[in-house]
UniProtKB/TrEMBL annotation:
Residues 24-309 form the Gcp-like domain. Its main location: cytoplasm. Keywords: Acyltransferase, Cytoplasm, Iron, Metal-binding, Transferase, tRNA processing. The keyword tRNA processing applies. Binds 1 Fe(2+) ion per subunit. This is tRNA N6-adenosine threonylcarbamoyltransferase. The gene is tsaD. CDD domains: ASKHA_NBD_TsaD_bac (cd24133).
Length: 334
């Protein structure tokens, strides 16, 4: 008999539902919230309200698409954290209500572990142990992955996430939110060594990205005072130089960790893994050092419920369920 699990993701600004059957992801329905664009960032209150509106239609669409009914399900999974508390509350409450109504077991999933387990949705899958760089708008983590739920964060950002650094720099350049993909696009036509921005040195495997934002702010202020057309004239070169600096900071730590821990399989996860500069740099590095490099499909890099479903499948096999008293955790650790 098939084991069918419905998974729900609502940690930030994507409402998503996915179905997994016997470990195979069947679909991944995502309702993106456009309401935040005009504010230049995610507004938590609006995100919670949009989850309320989108969640039932999203779940309905996932079931309908596969011709499944609620009574065909064997468990309900949800993102417990980390994330925006109001957004998480909507998903957790819905999952509990559905599990209660159908008398099904509940499975809680850590969103950051799920980003890593997205690597198991499709071939090629990494083998344990491997190193994973998780880079998103909210997180920058270097993780030693020894098993599905045996993961250790060996380094992380002490201030801004790298996606935030991309987005904040883009804002300084007058680009709309989220600016990360736009920096990537403009960078393609620029010289990465046109301008030098400082590389922040951090101990161990930690990162710091707030310095570059400040450096870019002062750099642009000075240049624009001298020539008000500077940004529009030099946009590609500025983007390429900023991207080069951010990627170089990530790369140094990945290289150091892979060498010191003796890991030859390197994976990336999270929205920033879409960045072409990061991909190219890692591909080059992998070639040079004989690493196997794993990059999930873009759909599984950004926030999605398929990765929650994948994590839930492994938890189901272990009989790892939670009670109805479960509550979300905005700062959930591994
Ligand atoms: O994982 P994600 O979809 O959401 C969370 O933050 O959890 O990541 C979104 C982040 C944003 O900061 C966005 O600007 C960045 O990923 N991003 C990129 C690219 N595509 C998305 N940053 C740089 N280059 C890209 N191509
Ligand atoms: Zn995420």
């Amino acid at each position: 008999m098939a084991i069918n699990i419905l998974a729900i993701e609502s940690s930030c600004d994507e409402t998503s539902a996915a179905l997994i059957s016997n470990g195979k992801v069947l679909n991944n329905i995502i309702a993106t919230q456009s309401v935040h664009e005009k504010y230049g960032g995610v507004v938590p209150e609006l995100a919670s309200r949009a989850h309320q509106q989108h969640l039932i239609p999203t779940v309905h669409a996932a079931l309908e698409e596969q011709g499944l009914r609620p009574k065909d399900l064997n468990a309900i999974a949800f993102t417990k954290g980390p994330g925006l508390l109001g957004s998480l509350l909507v998903g957790v409450s819905f999952a509990k209500a559905m599990a209660y109504a159908l008398d099904l077991p509940l499975i809680e999933v850590n969103h950051m572990q799920a980003h890593i387990l997205a690597h198991f949705i499709e071939e090629p899958r990494p083998a344990f142990p491997f190193l994973c760089l998780t880079v998103s708008g909210g997180h920058t983590q270097l993780v030693h992955v020894r098993g599905y739920f045996d993961m250790e964060i060996i380094g992380q950002t002490q201030d801004d996430a790298v996606g935030e650094a991309f987005d904040k720099t883009a804002k300084l350049l007058g680009l709309p939110y989220p600016g990360g993909p736009l920096i990537d696009r403009h960078a393609a036509a620029g010289n990465p060594h046109a301008y030098a921005f400082p590389i922040t040195e951090m101990p161990g495997y930690d990162f710091s990205f707030s310095g570059i934002k400040t450096a870019v702010l002062y750099f642009l202020r000075d240049q624009m005072q001298a020539d008000a057309t500077f940004i529009s004239r030099e946009l590609a070169n500025i983007c390429a130089s900023v991207q080069y600096t951010l990627v170089e900071m990530l790369l140094r730590k990945v290289r150091k960790a892979a060498r010191e821990l003796g890991l030859r399989q390197v994976a990336i996860a999270g929205g920033v893994s879409a960045n072409s500069g990061l991909r190219a740099a890692l591909e080059q590095e992998a070639e040079k050092r004989g690493w196997s490099l794993f990059i999930p499909k873009f759909e599984y890099c950004t926030d999605n419920a398929a990765m929650i479903a994948m994590a839930a499948h492994y938890k189901y096999l272990e009989g790892d369920f939670v009670g109805m008293d479960v509550v979300p955790e905005a700062r959930m650790k591994f």
